[in-house]
Every structure is written in structure tokens, then in C-alpha cells.
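From the pipeline queue, job 12 of 40. The input is one protein chain; the requested action is below.

Action: predict structure.
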Amino acid sequence: MNLYSLNSLNKTELSNVNILKIKNVSNLKGLEYIENLNTLDINDDGLILDYLPITKLYNLKTLSIHRCNLNVLSEVALFDKIDTFKLIYPKTDSINSLPLFPKVKNLTISFSSDFQLSTLKNFPNVEEFSLCLEGPLIVDGIEVINNLKTLNLSYAYISDYSKLFDIPTLKTISLKNCYIVNLEDFIKQAESKGIKVIM
């Protein structure tokens, strides 16, 4: 269902909506009436100026936001119900000021410039992290996601990877179209720590 078709629905009908896709909408007011919504996919394109209505969706578990303005998203301090979060090509280059997502276990980020893993401090319980990165991956700070079990990397350039293997819970690293300076050494170090590398 999309947001355009919600205007004519009554509260009973809205209570039956559990998946919603929103595209090119500038105002999220009224979302709180969709009480059983558990999956929300927003294609923002930088139009949304207030994400606070999302915090009133008490059953929301999965949130995907495409091309948002991170400065606007960061005005919300906490998203405490979400367990799956996808941030796809945000319009701002820095994600240092993201809100706190304390319950997220599955995190996906697609980013088109340098990305520092230390920015993941606001996702303290992530177990599976998927990163599509069109640029160098700087692994300093990866220790902030110390529950990580699965790391999926796409299109990243990785020259210094030693800290990737310092996470005691990490079991699997999946690589898709990544450039690793010394792939043979990467695999050897991973295997010595009991980490499976999938290519």
C-alpha cells in the first residue's frame, strides 16, 4: 500500500495495514494511525523535514529509508522499536549524527563515499551488517559493533583489514565485488580466527 491511498481509509481499515511504501512525500503526519504497521519503506529524496511521526509507530520493526537528508533524520534522538534498519544512499556525506537504534540487529547501509565504521556506535546490538560502499572502507572503530556475527561487504576497497578480525563474535564475512589489497592474507587471517569468508 502507498501513502497516497491512505486518505480515504478509516481507522479500522488502517489497522489492517502492516507494510507501507512511501515515495516523494514531504510530510509523515498521520502515520501514527496505522497502528499495526511493522514494515515501512520511505523513498525520501530529501523531501521529508520531520521523522518524529515514525517514533509513534509502536509495532514498527523494519525501517528502510532511501536518499534521506541525514541532518533531518538526526533530529530524532531515538528509534527504540526498530530491529531491522536500511539506510540507502543518504543525501548527506556524513552519518556521524544518526539517532540511537538500540534494538537493531540487522543493519544495511549503502553509501557512495568514504565510510568509517566508528559511526556505527548508535547501533550497539547489530549482529548482521551489510555495507555497500563505493569507496575505501576504513575499519578503525569497528569494535563498537561487538555483537557482530555476519559482515556482508559489497564494492568496498579494503587496504587495512586487521581490525576486522578482532571481533570475537564474528563468524562470516561475505565479499561481493570488493577489492582487497592482499586477498590471500585476508583469507588466511580470517581462517586463523575461525571466520568463514564467502566470495
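Job complete. The CA atoms of residues 154 and 176 lie 5 Å apart.
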